[in-house]
Amino acid sequence: MNKKTRISNLFVFSLCLVSLFTFGQTTPTPKKNNSSAEDIYYTLADFGRVEKIDAHVHLRTDFDTVFIRQAARDKFRLLNVSVYTSPNLTPEAQENFSLKLIGEFPNIVTYGTTFSLEGFNNSNWESKTLDYLEKSIARGAIAVKVWKNIGMELKNERDELAMITDPAFDSILQLLVEKDITLLGHLGEPKNTWLPLEEMTVQGDRDYFRENPRYHMHQFPDLPSYEEQVAARDQLLANNPDLRFVGAHLGSLEYDVNELAKRLDSFPNMAVDMAERISHLQHQAVTNWEGVRDFIITYQDRLLYGTDLRAGASDIQAKGLTEPEEISEHAHQVWLRHWQFFTGDQEMQVPKVTGTFNGLKLPKTVVDKIYRTNAEKWYPGLRR
Ligand SMILES: [Zn+2]
Question: Distance from the CA of 278 to the center of ligand 1, in angstroms?
Answer without folding.
Answer: 13
